[in-house]
Amino acid sequence: YSHFDGQTKYTLSLANLDGTDERTLFTSIPPSWFTGSLIPAWSPDGKTIAIGINVTEDNKQLLKLFGISVTDGSLRQLSDRNWNDIFAVEWLSNGQLIISGNEYSDSKTLPAQLWRMDGPNVQPQRITNDLNDYYGVCTTANGSSLITLQHQKVANLWISQNNDASRSEQISPASGVTDLRWTPSGKFIFTSDRNVWTMNADGGGQRQLTNGQFESFMPSMTPDGKYIIYLALRDNLIHIWREDADGNNQKQLTFGQQEWSPSISPDGQWVFYIGASEKGSSTVWKVPIDGGTPIQVSTAEAFESYLSPTGALIAFELTDISGEQKRISLMSTVDGKPFKTIILPRSTGLAPVRWTPDGRAIAFTNLQDNGTNIWTIAIDGNGEAKPLTNFKTETIFDFSWSADGTQLAILRGSSIRDAVLITETK
After folding, report:
1. What is residue 63's predicted lDDT score, i.e. its pLDDT?
2. Which of 115, 195, 216, 398 has the highest local Cβ count within 10 Å?
């Protein structure tokens, strides 16, 4: 198994099933690290473990497939193919490897496909070749067929009026929509097909704002409606970019190791974000809206950040190596002093955490047997979670309040995962 010590080291360890005789097999130090998506895979003879490791080449972070010797922990590269992510590896009895992963692109994330390698240092060949995502892979007992999960998301846009989140109306289909945000003028800005778009509140009038050359995502608009801030993947690194509201005059704002989770201050003068360091840590930073020298806001290890409506506090997810619960730390943006830590329930969903419009509570999705709903925890209370919506079915993928706080937009739907049997892969 692989694990991160929460500071600097990524370690691959071996142990008996009862936990005895644990030993460290291999350790990597950032900027090299194991991919968190891939469970280490044993070769049929038990001598090698396949694992994805991020390496730096020509100032680019690249993911490659390596084999680690069980005997002495030595490392050898199994293929020179570059990947954006590797989700699963299956060794066949004849030494072939089946890989579930995204092929490398320095400008966009390609669908996860299945690949076959006839052996080490042999170029992988596609098994699947479509726009669906295929996560995970295993073989039948005789090795003649593969089983994988084909993943699709079906979603619709819902809006609640007059600040009554318990009553929502379905507006339009929105299966390709992610990163949904309101604009100051009452439209939506969002990500679809790896580009930034806007549309009217009724789902019509869709307009693409980024040119499609590079993958762009997680957009938001400044309070005055002048600029759009978003993340762009270029040269396999994610940085924060700014452009005019009409899609012109692109400008790169950050130039670090990697940045994500941007949010704009209420006065429109700063962009707060999570920035990664060369040592692998990630903390809260801010950069002027016109570009310039970034300023570190916090030294605490953080995963995602969310600026409060007033800009006085910033909430950020603390890195929790146990992975059991989300811990949200609230901190002053003025002096960097911690305000409070909120522990979210274990049933918290994957949708981003949000502030309520009045800035008095943290909102999040809560997974239940009958679907997903939005819950809140007051920042000055005792940590009690209270439901805000009362849906009986489906999953909430994202939600966003309008600038005046009177409307709540919700992306709801289902994640469809079909088991697919593939034969004749040779």
Report:
1. 87
2. 216
| Cα 100 versus chain centre, distance | 18
Q: Give the pLDDT confidence of 303-313 residue by residue, as tens digits.
A: 889 999 999 99
Tokens of 386: 């209270």
3-state helix, strand, coil in the chain (%, to 5): 0, 55, 45
**Residues in CB range of 111: below 8 A, 6 or more apart:** 102, 130, 131, 132, 133, 134
Residues of the chain with pLDDT under 50: none
- For residue 37, the model assigns a pLDDT of 62
Confirm if 368 and 359 have CB atoms less than 8 A apart: no
Output phi, psi for 130, to 5 deg.
-150, -170
List the one residue out of 241, 289, 290 whose CA is nearest residue 266: 289
Q: Distance (Å, rounded) from C-alpha 185 to C-alpha 383?
A: 34
- Could you give the C-alpha distances from 373 to 172, 228, 305, in angstroms and in order? 19, 29, 21
**Cβ–Cβ under 8 Å, residues 177 and 157:** yes
DSSP state of 294: -
- Single-letter code of the amino acid located at 138: C
Q: Could you give the domains of the chain?
A: 2-139 (2.120.10.30), 154-415 (2.120.10.30)
Q: Whose CA is closest to 60, among 29, 9, 104? A: 104
d(C-alpha 377, C-alpha 365), whole Å: 11
Spell out the SS3 assignment of 196-208: EEEECCCCCCCEE
